[in-house]
Amino acid sequence: MHEDDSNKELESDDAYKKQYQTAQMKIAEVTPSLPVNVTRTSSTGAVKTSKFPKLELPKFSGYIKDWLPFWSQFKKIHDDPAISNEDKMQYLQEAMMVDSRASELVKSFPPTGENYTKAIASLKNRFGRDDIIVEFYVRELLTLVLQNAVRGNKKLSLASIYDKVECYIRTLETLGVTTDRCAAMLYPLVESSLPEEVIRAWQRSGQREAVEANGQRETTDRLEKLLRLLQLKVENEELIDMALTGFGLPMDQERTKKPKQSRRQTPPVRASFS
User: Fold this and answer.
1) What phi and psi values does residue 264 have, to the nearest 5 degrees?
2) Which region ranges are annotated with the description Disordered (predicted)?
3) Residue ranges covered by each domain of the chain
4) pLDDT recorded at residue 156
């Protein structure tokens, strides 16, 4: 009698298990997949969830130089099909800097989904055209040339010049103005923006003559080697600055410190009378 009861209980348990497994499979089929947080398990067994800081959209000021950083971030919202145009329009309004030219342009469109594409087209036409951005950065290079040419202006440091030139050229390359195609335009601008001592070092290095002997990629190679020379001089200056600022002494104080001139008393002139 006890054996029959035990068999019935086992059969009942098996039936419940099968029903439970079937229900789990059905739930898995109808439940959408959810994003999984990145977790780490420590040696003590505690589970830690990695939390990253919230990213905020950059505010667009209406200046041409700020268009590329702004659009590279906002484009993620623009291309997301899950976001309606009404919501995109709201995001666009919030991404404009208050009282800026860009903000006034976006506000000129009623905040509807139909006007979102029109507002984006107007923003691109006003601030995001490639030809306008290229012209802006070429003018920035010309500004460096003028600052270097006009005597009396406060000269930029070599590191600052290099950072600006590198930024402008890389941005132009992003817009399709590559050094292979436009080196003939970029090289004289870069060379004229450099201090006289750097140009003299470039002339003495012998790299210019070696490049000119190649012939085919003369201007492109000259620009690349000039930028490389500028980079090396900036790195050397940083090493020198690090050496001079040892023991917490300010570098400017070391450079401007002049040795004290010894004060010599002029011996009295003795007039001899014969």
Assistant:
1) -105, 130
2) 250-274
3) 64-128, 131-208+216-243
4) 82
